[in-house]
Amino acid sequence: MSGYKRMTIKPIKITCAQLNPTVGDIEGNARMMLETWSNHDENSDLIIFPELFLCGYPPEDLVLNAAFISTLEAKIVKLCEVSKDFQSAALIPTIWKVNDVICNAALLIEKGEISHIFYKHKLPNYHVFDEPRTFSPGPLPEPYLFRGHSLGIMICEDIWHAEVPRYLKDNGAKILIAINGSPFHVNQQEERHIVANSATNKTGLDLIYLNMFGGQDDLVFDGRSFVMHKDSSVAYQSPAFEEDIFSVTVSSPEESSPSVTTLKQGSDYVKYNAHPLELIYNALVTGVRDYAHKNGFKDALLGLSGGIDSALTAAIAADALGPKHIHCVLLPSKFTSDESNEDAEQCARSLNVSHETIPISIAINAFTETIPTLQGIAHENTQSRIRGSILMALSNMSGALLLTTGNKSEVAVGYCTLYGDMNGGFNPIKDVYKTDVYKLSQWRNEQSQVIPERILTKAPTAELRADQKDEDSLPPYDLLDDILRLLVDYDDLDWETAPQELLDMREKCLEYTGDIEKIARLLKINEYKRFQAAPGTRISPRGFGRDRRYPLTNHFVNKIEKP
């Protein structure tokens, strides 16, 4: 045996691409992948991309479209042809059909050939996910020997189940790699780190966690990919809501940990403890920008009332698309105060967006002449619907995306008018409670003063009748939002293990049983409005839409009860 030399396994460099795909844009996504692969071919061994990157995530029922699957298969053939002379390999996440079984997969392509296929083993079926509807689960992933290194590659949900990284470790994996399409909510990164910590601790292996970023309908992906050592220390983390390409050098198996370098110019270790309000605001900006741009809109318009909701929406829109692409419309009635008009105009000037004033008095007079008995709530809603019709007409004429401005508190209890202020193609603050609207507005003003101070301090009002205030119809917003959080965000909570802050919230709310009954009833009976509402960026663990799909016809009223 003395005549044999031990084979030296060279370190490999893995390039991780935190990029922004578009669902259904197979050609564009493939071009982005190929450009990244080509640019890093000479200095990398393996290029990896986030979950289902080739088709975009989540593809939903596109998975069931035969032409869509055929187009993906043809594109894989093309990628193999183009890359046959590349030195590096690439992990191409895509839908893959095997013997009439459709799987969420990732193809390892090297020298123009598919050298291995990894399948997603665990399919999530909770919150915004319903993958068992479209995909079949693959087997437990096996480690793959790549250039002398045993890689344990997992697709998203697999890392959330301890048996998967443990199986990879037990079967010889030396490093874990998780490719993800993990959408943002305010606590999501903390939860990812807990799961990653568990995987690294229990296996004694280092982990590369690659996540996509960008907006897709009501979901937004924050990126924040990271490399975690087996001692749970974070060696590198990508910025939130930005593209990032970084490389990880995996040392020879004899060495203990991978070293990390970044290919992003001027970037080293990125701190990941950004303030929650900054993360939420950037999520909302990303949601608007990508919804608009991916659907072909350059411009957006909205009604600017002089209230906090439309002011925050205008700020988000201006930051997302640029001030020159935002147009605000003031639509005063005889109930609109001079203060509101002044505040709206000042807000538009501060944001440097264009604005115009279109009074609705002529239109409302025409309605009252047509319906002489028009009064009460019908008269109030007619004002809102006139405004909505004007805004939709302007949207039709200009081709701009109409943004609606209702917050989560209003959407929850139906304090909004169907075919009126709910009109629009997208709602940036649909998943933002009213109390958080104020917090986000204050945070945005700390960066630069764009929302007039009076908007932040005056009592909120719809101004649909004389001397109207929101609290004429609703509890104070701090109480309302706590009740709604318990009824919406935490309705599936096990109170035996609930954190103390939620127990305290429940005790506080239980002092107002009459308000709880009223809000629970409003929440139930306004499901039909939410069913017809515009999509909006999800930033909480339980948004209306994908997360919470209640029947329209329903006699069950939720409760908050004493233990």
Count up the helices: 16
Q: Which ranges are low-confidence, i.e. pLDDT below 50, for 5 or more consecutive residues? A: 1-5, 265-269
Radius of gyration: 26 Å
> What CATH architecture of the largest domain would you give?
4-Layer Sandwich
Name the average pLDDT.
Answer: 91
Strand content: 15-25%
Number of strands: 19
**How many domains comprise the coordinates?**
2
Q: What is the highest CATH level, the class of the largest domain?
A: Alpha Beta
CATH fold field value of the largest domain:
Nitrilase/N-carbamoyl-D-aminoacid amidohydrolase
Short structural description:
This protein has 563 residues and is of the alpha/beta class. It is built from 16 helices and 19 strands.
Overview of the molecule:
The chain has two domains: about 10-270, Carbon-nitrogen hydrolase (Nitrilase/N-carbamoyl-D-aminoacid amidohydrolase), CATH 3.60.110.10; about 280-470, HUPs (Rossmann fold, 3-Layer(aba) Sandwich). The chain is about 35% helix and about 20% strand. The chain is built from 16 helices and 19 strands. It has helices at about 25-40, 65-80, 165-170, 190-205, 275-295, 310-320, 340-350, 360-370, 375-400, 410-415, 435-445, 455, 475-490, 500-510, 515-525, 525-530, and strands at about 10-20, 45-50, 90-100, 100-110, 115-120, 145, 150-155, 175-180, 205-210, 215, 220, 225-230, 235, 245-250, 260, 300-305, 325-330, 355, 400. The chain has a seven-stranded mixed beta sheet. Strand 8 (about 175-180), helix 4 and strand 9 form a beta-alpha-beta unit. Helix 6 (about 310-320) runs parallel beside helix 7 (about 340-350), helix 8 packs across helix 9 (about 375-400) and helix 13 packs across helix 15.
